[in-house]
Design a protein that fits this description.
There is one protein chain. The chain is an alpha/beta fold. The chain has two domains: 3-108 and 257-339, FAD/NAD(P)-binding domain; 112-254, FAD/NAD(P)-binding domain. It is 27% helix and 23% strand. The protein contains nine helices and 22 strands. The strands form seven sheets. It has a five-stranded parallel sheet. A four-stranded parallel sheet has the order 13-12-11-17, with helices on one face.
């Protein structure tokens, strides 16, 4: 009887797990079903470009069912309600699905409630953590471009996805200069990081000096070790600093685990993230795996204002590859090669980009970090986005993790 694997989540973690598992086990040996509440894959790293009007959601997404079908992976558009580890079933809005192995690639819930006034539904603040929020931010930015005013961009205490805030600040600066309106729109960057470029990794190489110089050259004011407490229609309140005037505020919130996992017995920690071992298996339920943002990862260090461990698409794929190899080993395959998570990303700075490679993310590091700046990295980021989408939509995978 084939191994029944249920994968929950249709983003990087779920898609990579399904593809990697199918590479190792045939349809005769393993039945794979991927469940997702949405029927499309969205290339999340491009959401800042959606907010700036450079991409539409259609340009950075594709339907999941055809892509998975090419790999003999079944797709079900269903919403996870809860997991029942004792009975080995997941409960969705369409009923129950039994499994032999369950992979939770459920992503995150944006804890926007951590900052009063951070929308989209209950306040004037904006974020970039979902397609809907990116579209809403694009509309708000269009109004500011027509009638410029102060902008506050940054991250809330406990944020882990910090890169997009830097990208949005640089990209907005570049856009305003192209329209000759930058002088009417002062930009302030507010971050819980103890210094620029910390990014939840403790910093890397000379990225701190690079970002400080870039902000100073562009006239972007910044505040570090800062805790945003509230967003109003006209200001952002920062503990110890008072109110910063803001016609538009874009703040990345902290993340939490999705409710369906958080409320499923003892699967998750108090924040809703799943605790796993080095092969991404649950320590109590070894037939359950978790990959990506759903995984509980402690901060690299204590900071005056909390900054959490970074979570990127590249790191998600690393986790999914290890988990898939470990699942395949149950059917006689070789055990996975386990190693610490590394980080590779390209940070868009509007007219150029910075490539950053850190191995491993958590110090001490086996290699000197790579920090490289230039316009060619911006071209590489754009090319990688297109290549990834074309390849993944055809049921193929790209090697490496350039451009996250």
């Amino acid at each position: 009887m084939p191994l029944r694997v249920v994968v929950v989540g249709g983003s990087f973690g779920g898609l990579t797990t399904a593809h990697q598992l199918r590479r190792r086990l045939s349809a005769r040996d393993c039945e794979i079903t991927l469940i997702s509440a949405t029927d499309r894959f969205t290339f999340i790293p491009s959401l800042p470009w959606v907010a700036l009007g450079r991409r539409s959601l259609e340009q950075i997404s594709f339907p999941l069912a055809p892509a998975l079908g090419r790999q003999a992976v079944s797709f079900a558009q269903e919403t996870l309600l809860r997991c029942d580890p004792e009975r080995r079933v997941v409960v969705t809005d369409h009923g129950e699905r039994p499994y032999d192995v369950l992979v939770l690639a459920t992503g995150h819930r944006s804890a926007n409630e951590a900052v009063a006034g951070l929308g989209p539904g209950d306040g004037p603040g904006h974020s970039l953590m979902s397609p809907a929020e990116a579209v809403e931010l694009r509309q708000a930015l269009a109004a500011v471009l027509d009638d410029p005013g102060p902008l506050v961009i940054g991250c809330a205490p406990g944020a882990s996805c910090i890169g997009p805030a830097y990208e949005f600040a640089f990209e907005v600066d570049h856009l305003l200069r192209r329209r000759n309106r930058r002088h009417r729109a002062p930009i302030t960057f507010v971050t819980p990081e103890p210094h620029l470029g910390h990014m939840g990794m403790g910093g890397a190489g000379h990225v701190r000096r690079l970002l400080e110089d870039a902000f100073e050259d562009r006239g972007i004011r910044y505040r570090t070790s800062a805790a945003i407490t509230q967003i109003t229609p006209s200001a952002v309140e920062v503990e110890g600093l008072g109110q910063l005037e803001a016609r538009l505020a874009m703040v990345i919130p902290p993340l939490a685990g999705v409710a369906a996992v958080a409320e499923s017995g003892q699967l998750a920690n108090p924040k809703g993230f799943v605790v796993v071992d080095e092969r991404y298996r649950h320590p109590v339920h070894p037939d359950i795996y978790a990959v990506g943002v759903a995984v509980a990862l402690p901060p690299v260090e204590a900071t005056p204002v909390p900054v959490n461990f970074p979570k990127t698409g590249d790191m998600t794929e690393q986790m999914a590859t290890v988990a898939a190899a470990d699942i395949a080993a149950r059917a006689g395959g070789p055990p996975p090669l386990v190693r610490d998570l590394a980080a590779r990303c390209i940070l868009d700075m509007g007219d150029r980009a910075v490539y950053l490679s850190v191995d491993p993310v958590r110090p001490p590091r086996r290699r000197i970090p790579t920090v490289s700046e230039g316009r060619h990295w911006l071209w590489a980021k754009r090319a990688f986005e297109r290549a990834y989408l074309l390849s993944a939509a055809r049921g193929r995978r790209l090697p490496g993790g350039l451009g996250w």
